[in-house]
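Hi all, posting the design record for the shared folder.

TITLE: backbone redesign
STEP: 1 of 1
STRUCTURE INPUT:
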């Protein structure tokens, strides 16, 4: 029934809490787990404390690229570790780190890799918090056109 299960990651402990559920399904269906981390493209406004107002534009771009590469490297290291753990547990897994906006990148990955099931965490925000912060999980649920396992996760 399920051959490829996507478990998007964002570097948070919340996102990793979905893995035990995905592992169980992968074992039952002899499925492969795909881990995807989308690194949002950095913008100068997000790095304002690190950049002085008089910073040269070329230097600012270099700093942005350095930050982006550091985030990519951390994502690669994190996902390689998770894949090693999954492989030790007898579950075949693959990983990928991409830059961009999480929702379109996740949707694109789903389509290109013929994902059968998406497993994601939901922080359970509602009302104003959801309106302000948005929800990647909700957007993927609406646009992903695949079965989805959503695990509600609350902070400890």
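Okay, here is what came back for every position:
SEQUENCE:
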């Amino acid at each position: 029934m399920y051959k490829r299960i996507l478990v998007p990651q964002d570097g948070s402990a919340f996102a990793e809490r979905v893995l035990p559920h995905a592992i169980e399904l992968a074992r039952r269906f002899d499925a492969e787990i795909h881990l995807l981390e989308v690194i949002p493209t950095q913008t100068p406004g997000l790095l304002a404390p690190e950049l002085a107002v008089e910073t040269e534009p070329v230097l600012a771009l270099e700093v942005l690229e350095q930050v982006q590469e550091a985030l990519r490297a951390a994502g690669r290291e994190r996902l390689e570790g998770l894949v090693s753990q999954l492989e030790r547990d007898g579950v075949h897994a693959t990983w990928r780190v991409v830059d961009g906006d999480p929702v379109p990148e996740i949707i694109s990955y789903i389509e290109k890799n013929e994902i059968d099931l998406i497993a994601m965490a939901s922080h359970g925000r509602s009302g104003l918090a959801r309106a302000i912060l948005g929800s990647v999980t909700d957007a993927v649920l609406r646009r992903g056109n695949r079965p989805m396992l959503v695990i509600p996760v609350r902070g400890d």
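COMMENT: The chain is about 45% helix and 20% strand.
Let me know if anyone wants the other runs.
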